[in-house]
Prior knowledge:
Blueprint: H1 11-27, H2 35-49, H3 69-72, H4 85-100, H5 103-110, H6 116-131, H7 135-148, H8 156-168, E1 169-174, E2 177-183, H9 185-208, H10 212-219, H11 235-252, H12 258-263, H13 284-304, H14 308-326, H15 336-346, H16 350-365, H17 376-398, H18 408-415, H19 417-427, H20 433-436, H21 440-466
Helix pairs in contact: 1-4, 4-17, 6-7, 7-9, 8-9, 8-14, 11-21, 13-14, 14-15, 14-21, 15-16, 16-17, 16-21, 19-21
Amino acid sequence: MAALSERSWSWSWMVPLVFGVTLLKCLLIPAYHSTDFEVHRNWLAITHSLPISKWYYEATSQWTLDYPPFFAWCCKCVNRRQESKEIMERPAFILAVLLLWNFGLLIVDHIHFQYNGFLFGVMLLSIARMFQERHLESALLFAILMNFKHIFLYVAPAYGIYLLRSYCFTENKLGGSIQWKSFSCSRLFALGFIVFSVFAISFGPFISMGQLSQVLARLFPFKRGLCHAYWAPNFWALYNVVDKVLSVIDVKLQLLDSAKLSKASMTGGLVQEFQHAVLPSVSPFTTLVCTLLSIMPAVLQLWLRPRGPRGFLQCLILCALGSFMFGWHVHEKAILIAILPLSLLAVENRKDAGTYFILATTGHFSLFPLLFTGPEIPIKIGLMLLFTVYSFSALRALFRKEGSLVNLPESIYLSALVPLQVICEIIYPLTAWQQRFPFVPLLLISVYCSLGVTYSWIKLYISVLMEPRSDRKMKAQ
């Protein structure tokens, strides 16, 4: 990927940009915060007050520690074109805004209260090291990242395959074609030593106390059910709503007991297991198989048709999207794992820019229900409008000579988000249905956004699989 240039940053515009982001975040301090604030505060109390042997057993509060031990301890992107300095700096500035002012990060970290900003910073730094061919540094950063938050296991296959293919195997050009030269056991040992050391430091104390199974049980609570309390906009949201429609039809036709319909509800807002009424219920193993099948084409292409760091980044994004689409108990915030890395591709070519705009718009809109009180409505709408208008206008200007970012059907789909928001936030709460069916707005947003996320995933997959092999490489500064 001919994108990450070796030219140094132009700090003249970065300083006011960073200052502006910081100021905005300070203004959000008195805003509503979710229960995650209490969750993390309780975790701090646990790790501060209790010995390490009791961290993953403490259950006095419902907010039990369920992050990996490391969390418990608590770029420039331009093509090398012969253009004016102003044009050369534009992609870098656009990328900086897409990352620093990302709407999802703003509301999730600074209103809903989490720590995704610094975690994604580590992730992007790891990606940059990969583009610089500093593979061991990249592996070290990613291993540390997974021990901060295990959700980044979503993209671990991309790291594993790329490091094995491009670092452990050395290549040589013979007769104009790239052929296998040898497999380096020393490189594999160095890579394995780094990863093993990080995990040993992280989990070692708990292994020595015989608590590994308890830690893993907290990190992977499969009893929480297929979907989060608020459905993430993925395949299972579509699956659930089809099950609901079929169950209602069966009740009308007297093929299904109405009592079973109520037991099959998945929108009560609680974290627990549910059974589908008509369609087969989904087990954790089923979601694992579906996830592996969804990422397999990207992983195989990364192994069989390596295209340098660009291919790695594409595979990483597809792994993130595949895991989001088919994973077990996926949180809606996990869409950011795909949106932020896709920002790097969005400033490179028009196709990726269009896919990014659709995914970012629908993915960010799906986060709206996280902020559900009245005072937050103008804040979330205003912030998203600013980010969406800027990203569209900036990317359209960047690729104005290559055509439009989105076609007519895509524009119609995205435009429909406006009346959907009006219905869910203004009209529906005034109706009598609000008391009897309070989950309908959540269902509408989740299902509608899942269509856009699914479309973006398919569109990106087609683009990646059809892309001709190129030996161009991105260089990171």
